[in-house]
TrEMBL record:
Coiled coil: none
UniProt-recorded name of the protein: CENP-V/GFA domain-containing protein
Keywords: Metal-binding, Zinc
CENP-V/GFA domain ranges (all copies): 6-55
Length: 81
């Protein structure tokens, strides 16, 4: 696996064979590991707790649950949805 710091405190990890992005970690959000789910073959069997960067989603994607929605980064519990 290869990695580099894309900006201070943000580490990106890539496959050493095909260079596909795998996951990202940040120093200021240590409770999160951002996995690139497009690389997964099956159900990752994790609980989705919210939706980040909704402002960037394609128009055809519909969020069909009642999980918290964040237009950008997670910034703590939302005041209201």
């Amino acid at each position: 696996m290869l990695s580099y710091e894309s900006r201070p405190g943000k580490q990106r990890f890539y496959c050493s064979n095909c260079f596909s992005p795998i996951y990202v970690t940040t120093n200021n959000e240590t409770e999160f590991l951002r996995v690139r789910t497009g690389l997964l073959d099956g159900d990752p069997q994790v609980e989705v707790t919210g939706h980040m960067w909704v402002c960037e989603k394609p128009s055809w994607v519909v969020i069909e649950d009642d999980k918290p929605v964040y237009m950008g980064n997670y910034v703590g519990p939302p005041d209201s949805l």
